[in-house]
Design brief:
130 residues; mainly beta; globular; 8-stranded antiparallel β-sheet
Amino acid sequence: MATVFSSNRSGVLIDGQAVEGLQSLAFRVVTEREDVRAVGSSERITVSFGLRTVQGEIVVKSANYVLDTHLNDQTQFNLVANLKKDQAADAPKRTLSFEECFVEGKSFGMEAGGVAVTTYAFTATRIREE
């Protein structure tokens, strides 16, 4: 059975500080891959794997000055997402730890009658799931 984590119960920390106005956090793990071909055949015989990186995005209402500072100074940070299902003590939970992160880009948007949102693109050296 699948565990459904609640965004209302979960939280994200950057260097131990809560991210205010968090709208979303998305990431993907990317591993370089190269097919090894057989001589005289159109099929691969194996796969060679290489560098693995983590690419993500954080969307916040208005702006996040901590992330702005990391973007301007090109300094690294750690990000921790504490995912929870509900407030019960025995409720399922998971911790995602993004290590050695750098902010790579920033985009801003505002719609008529809406709230401004800023999207921060980041990379991490690794992610640990507990």
